[in-house]
Input
Amino acid sequence: MSDQPRRGTRIAHIGIAVPGLDEILPFYRDVLGMPEVPLDDADGARIAGLAAGESLVELLEPARPESPIGKFIAKRGPGIHHVCFAVDDLDGALERCRAAGVRLIDEVPRLGAEGKRIAFLHPSATAGVLVELTEY
Output
C-alpha cells in the first residue's frame, strides 16, 4: 500500500447486464443526462461507462451468448450483475476476506475494464451479490 492517506471503501461502480447497449444507453445518457466515460471491453462484454457522481454505471452487453454476461442474462434476465467497491489496499482486503473464510472467485487480482486491479468475491459469501473489489 502507498503512503497516501486512506480514503475508505466506496462504491466504484455498479455493473448492469443488458441484452443490447443501443437500446438502453440513450436512457442513461440522454434521459438521465449521465456523461459517457470510455471503458475497455472485458470478460466477453461490450461495456459502456456512465458517470454517476463519483461512481460509475457500467452497462454490460454480452459479446457472445456463452460469455459470463450472456450466461447471466440467459439464466436471470437483464439487471444488476455486480457491485464494485474501491478499497485502499486490494491485497489487504483479499487477505482479510481469506481470513474470514470468504470464497474468492479471483485468488489473484487481475486488470479490469478501467485498467485497475480487480478481484471478484463469490456471491455465496456476500448474501447472493456478486462483489468486485478494486483499488482507487
In short: The radius of gyration is 15 Å. Strands lie at 10-17, 36-37, 45-52, 55-62, 79-87, 110-111, 117-121, 131-135. DSSP finds three helices and eight strands in the chain. The longest strand covers residues 79-87.
